[in-house]
Design a protein that fits this description.
binds N-carbamoyl-L-aspartate, 17% strand, 268 residues, 4-stranded parallel beta sheet, alpha/beta, single chain
Length: 268
């Protein structure tokens, strides 16, 4: 990857307020800032005054005093809105909000489809796993609504997609269909992207994991792109990693490029 030599964020400081765990989103946003010549400022929640009971509002106002942009990961819309209430003068970027949204992941996912397939338009994508509490899915289907995508949804038992989401997609004219777990094998032969997700156990999801194993790929279409926002669970075995179409490690790099673009656009 090397030094890309951009300096759009030279002299700028980007704050990180992460109230939920993260590996890729945190690292890719941070490297994105650094690659653009900016600096990062973290707040370690465990040693911050939030432990003394300081409010989110005051914490957000404090960030605003010191940084030029704030990147937030949190557990609910209420928390995100409370942080936004304390931050008026600088951009706030959502880096994953509860079960609701993960917009920058969706941008990276769509970029991945474009890079891997040449185009996103008309993509036939099977989205599989925790469709109830997976925020990446929520954001991805909304973004895909702009691309004449065919969206095939295979939810784990008790973790099926919400009716409101399907209704919304239909209202936007999207070709969307829900499938049973048992249909997954057959579906794999027809789609050109499969987007696996893990069960959000820490958010109360519990059920049988839908697994993708190498033997299922035998009759899949040429050029099938296999995606996963990561971290993975049992749904995606390491044996899949050597498949040509396994794009999830490239996907995490595309997410970094997208975050660089976004940061340049809002602060550059
Ligand atoms: C996801 C997240 O945090 O929503 N990971 C990510 O940001 N790349 C997916 C997950 O936790 O399942």
């Amino acid at each position: 990857m090397g030094d890309v030599g951009h300096d759009e964020l030279k002299g700028k400081i980007v704050g990180f307020l992460f109230l939920e765990k993260s590996t890729r989103t945190l690292m890719s946003f941070k490297t994105a800032v650094m690659r653009l010549g900016g600096k990062v400022l973290d707040l370690d929640i465990d040693v911050s005054s939030m432990g003394k009971g300081e409010s989110l509002y005051d914490t957000a106002r404090t960030f605003e005093t010191y940084v030029d942009c704030l990147i937030v990961r949190c557990g609910s819309l209420e928390v995100l809105n409370e942080i936004r209430r304390g931050v008026r003068r600088i951009p706030v970027i959502n880096a994953g909000c509860g079960i609701y949204s993960h917009p920058t992941q969706a941008l990276g996912d769509v970029l991945t489809m474009r890079q891997e397939r040449g185009t996103v338009s008309g993509v036939d994508v099977a989205i599989v796993g925790d469709l109830k509490r997976g925020r990446t899915v929520n954001s991805l289907v909304k973004l895909l609504a702009n691309y004449r995508a065919k969206i095939r949804l295979v939810g784990c038992k008790h973790c099926e997609v919400g009716r409101d989401v399907v209704k919304w997609l239909i209202s936007k004219g999207v070709d969307v269909k829900c499938y049973e777990v048992g249909d997954f094998d057959g579906l794999l032969k027809k789609c050109n992207v499969v987007y696996m997700t893990r069960l959000q156990k820490e958010r109360g999801s519990d059920g049988e994991v839908i697994k993708l194993v190498p033997s299922m790929l035998r009759d899949s279409r040429d050029g099938l792109v296999i995606m996963h926002p990561l971290p993975r669970g049992e749904e995606l075995s390491e044996e899949i990693d050597s498949e040509l179409g396994a794009a999830y490690f490239r996907q995490m790099e595309y997410c970094m490029w997208v975050r660089m673009s976004l940061l340049s656009a809002v602060m550059g």
